[in-house]
């Protein structure tokens, strides 16, 4: 029997149907699961995971269990848990602690329950699990041999820990795998963020001025999808190389203070704090919409928004109206949290197939390579390429292979102009 805390165990049957649907669109992870079930490379391992509790995550958890692991899971965001999935996982015997709408206190209680399970390997999305283990739960450090990190924000936090010499066990940055960020961050975030905005507002994007704050891989994908919906896309950036790329991609680029007065919809995708602040909001037009697609709810300054507002009311699910002192109304989506998971269902299963295949294979890699130095590692090239090949195979796509002559040519320096 598992130990768990979920909203309603009666939702398990609905959750099972959703997991089945996701699994049908995750052929790579299914291939890995089949091998894991036969080889049991994770036999006896305790895995502690802090991930968005979605149908795709459930397929990953199933894969780890098929590999012989025991899994404890909590949500990595108070609003991203799909309660029917949490119920289905609890019903399957997974130690899961997650429900939609957790308070901050409840959120960290769930993380601590996972840590109580004494994980040997951690899976994180945002690094809250790792940071808690390294701060208030150092008693758990002696058990951990390694971990993985799913998202850009988490990798930034973990690299900061490594630079300061406080990271005590190795972490593989799954986020930085080509088969993760080139697809998950770009195509996944682009589509799911638009999905979240539309579910929360049901507005027409065509003709709107759509401001994307940050032109990393998530911002690139979002700008591309918004443009495809007919929006006039404006990009704000602090990095001159990314700003130049946005210009060359055909987007307007300007400072956020300039964009503030003309934008209709603003979405943050930076991983940084206070990207949209009070002075920007005060310049916005009546009816401007604010959303965040970064991991934490800090990119839009909520304290500033509350300070300059005289009232707040909920218009519909995930849509709050803030009335400013001069009567203008500003609309905030999903409390400033991840709009694609709080207002919608997160990334499509097809892209999470590659991301979570990397997760599963990196867990296997850590299990087979104990004693690694405590630093942040890239996903091994052979894992990244294996995921890509398996994905192509599932799509019935074949590619060429280099001849021996071509391999020799690329590895030599003697040959030149002939």
Give a written overview of the molecule.
This protein is an alpha/beta fold. The chain contains 17 helices and 15 strands. It has helices spanning 12-24, 27-39, 55-66, 83-91, 104-116, 128-135, 152-163, 178-201, 217-228, 240-248, 256-260, 278-281, 302-307, 339-342, 349-368, 381-394, 404-410; strands at residues 46-50, 70-74, 95-97, 121-124, 146-149, 171-173, 209-213, 232-236, 252-253, 265-268, 289-292, 309-316, 319-324, 329-333, 376-378. The strands form 2 sheets. An 8-stranded mixed sheet has the order 9-8-7-10-11-14-13-12. The radius of gyration is 22 Å and the shape is globular.
| Strand composition percent | 15-25%
What structural class do helix, strand and pairing data support?
alpha/beta
Gyration radius, rounded: 22 Å
Oligomeric organization of the protein chains: single chain
Adjacency order of strands in the biggest sheet = 9-8-7-10-11-14-13-12
Overall morphology: globular
Largest sheet: 8 strands, mixed
- Counting DSSP H or I runs of 4 or more residues, the number of helices is 17
Ranges where pLDDT stays below 50 over 5 or more residues in a row are none
Number of beta-strand segments: 15
Overall pLDDT confidence: 97
What helical percentage do the residues reach?
40-55%
Please report the distance between the alpha carbons of the first and last residues.
72 Å
């Amino acid at each position: 029997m598992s130990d768990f805390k979920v909203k309603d165990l009666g939702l398990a049957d609905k959750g099972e149907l959703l997991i089945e649907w996701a699994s049908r669109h995750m052929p790579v992870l299914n291939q890995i699961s089949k091998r894991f079930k036969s080889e049991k490379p994770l036999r006896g391992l305790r895995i502690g995971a802090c991930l968005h509790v979605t149908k795709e995550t459930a397929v990953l958890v199933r894969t780890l269990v098929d590999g012989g692991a025991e899994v404890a899971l909590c949500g990595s965001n108070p609003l991203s848990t799909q309660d029917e999935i949490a119920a289905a996982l609890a019903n399957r015997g997974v130690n899961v602690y997650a429900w939609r709408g957790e308070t901050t206190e409840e959120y960290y209680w769930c993380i601590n329950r996972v840590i109580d399970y004494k994980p040997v390997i951690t899976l994180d999305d945002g690094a809250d699990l790792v940071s808690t283990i390294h701060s208030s739960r150092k008693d758990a450090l002696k058990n951990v041999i390694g971990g993985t990190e799913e998202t850009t924000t988490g990798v930034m936090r973990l690299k900061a820990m490594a630079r300061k010499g406080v990271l005590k066990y190795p972490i593989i940055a799954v986020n930085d795998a080509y088969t993760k960020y080139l697809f998950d961050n770009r195509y996944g975030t682009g589509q799911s963020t638009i999905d979240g905005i539309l579910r929360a507002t049901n507005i027409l994007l065509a003709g709107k001025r759509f401001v994307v704050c940050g032109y990393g891989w998530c911002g690139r994908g979002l700008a591309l999808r918004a443009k495809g919906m007919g929006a006039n896309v404006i990009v704000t950036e602090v990095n001159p190389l990314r700003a130049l790329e946005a210009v060359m991609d055909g987007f307007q680029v300007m400072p956020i203070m300039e964009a503030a007065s003309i934008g209709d919809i603003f979405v943050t995708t930076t991983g940084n704090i206070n990207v949209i602040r009070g002075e920007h909001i005060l310049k916005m037009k009546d009816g401007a919409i604010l959303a965040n697609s970064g991991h934490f709810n800090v990119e839009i300054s909520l304290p500033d928004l509350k300070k300059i507002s005289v009232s707040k009311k909920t218009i519909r699910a995930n849509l709050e109206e803030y009335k400013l002192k001069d009567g203008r109304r500003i609309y905030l989506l999903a409390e400033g949290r991840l709009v694609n998971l709080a207002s919608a269902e997160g990334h499509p299963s097809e892209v999470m197939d590659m991301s979570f295949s990397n997760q599963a294979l990196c867990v296997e890699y850590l299990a087979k390579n104990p004693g690694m130095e405590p630093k942040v590692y890239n996903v091994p090239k052979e894992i990244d390429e294996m995921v890509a090949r398996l994905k192509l195979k599932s799509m019935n796509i074949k590619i060429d292979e280099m001849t021996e002559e071509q391999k020799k040519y690329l590895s030599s320096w003697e040959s030149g102009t002939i």
